[in-house]
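Project standup — Tuesday

K.O.: blocked on the structure for the chain from last sprint. Re-posting the sequence here as requested.
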Amino acid sequence: MNQTTAVILARRPDRTFVADDLSLGTIDLPELAAGQALVRNQYMSLDPSTRGRMDPGEKQYTTNFTIGGPLDGSAVGVVVESSSPKLPVGATVRHRLGWREYAVVDDAAATLCDISVAPATAWLSSLGQTGFTAYAGLLPVGRLQPGQTVLVSGAGGAVGSMAGQFARLLGAGRVIGSAGGAEKCAWLRDDCGFDVVINYRDGDFAAELPGAAPDGIDLFFDNVGGWQFAAALQNMAINGRVSMCGAISNFGTQEQPSTACLIEAVLRRITIQGFIVRDYEDLRPEFEQRVIGWLASGELVDRATIVEGIANAGAGLAGLLSGANVGKALVRLSE
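H.V.: unblocked you, prediction finished:
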């Protein structure tokens, strides 16, 4: 096999991403060298960070996409040909060359996935970077303690739904979420164990938050930024902490609040810390052991919204950025 179908960056988005910013094309596959394997991708992850990488310039922790070049991101697939004893034919592996149907991966950049303990999709969700991001944001970054009140913005999405459930399983006294739409809110309350969920799309988040957290918020896990960030700061407990995971509101059209809201960080002595999950790789074995146990016991819910086929990957990403997904957003590339 010399080529594969891939998703290409056709143009840079004009603030709001649309599926036509991407196109389908073919890219060359290199011949296998020692230590490499050919993988047939089964599922690929749809992530908000993909939108940020479409902009010009470079990020501090990754590279941006080039116009005319393929996208990449997390994927799981089956090894169909191998020149590495570490990646045997038939093994399921996770790697970073998604957004294409086949990939040639280095064994140093691929992880074997034990599908006897969790399905392939879970290795992109609860057991993947999604879950690991939630775990890192709660513990080494957020320093969560039993009995504390936790607020998670974007709780109906992949990282948010994991962060809220992990907080509950780690002993939080009260878990509050924000989500857009009645379906997500009901799922978070009824299935995921959130104590309170505020429907920011149909209600008034800033008005409802004080009643949801009458004693203040000890830890705010923020995926959204913008007006939800501003409202949360006004309801933080003294010496509260903010784990800044993302700011998906940056990619919308709504006017953003003034930085004047940051005075609350002074008045309430709040610690605000951004983080990149790759800085916490030493915690991955501990994280995987805990999550495998929670999945086995049925205490953790891992739900995915799955888009079918690489041709629909762009539409799937647009849906993710508009909040159409419940739980983890994936694209099924093959069986």
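K.O.: great, moving the ticket to review. The two ends are 19 Å apart (CA to CA). The chain has a mean pLDDT of 95.
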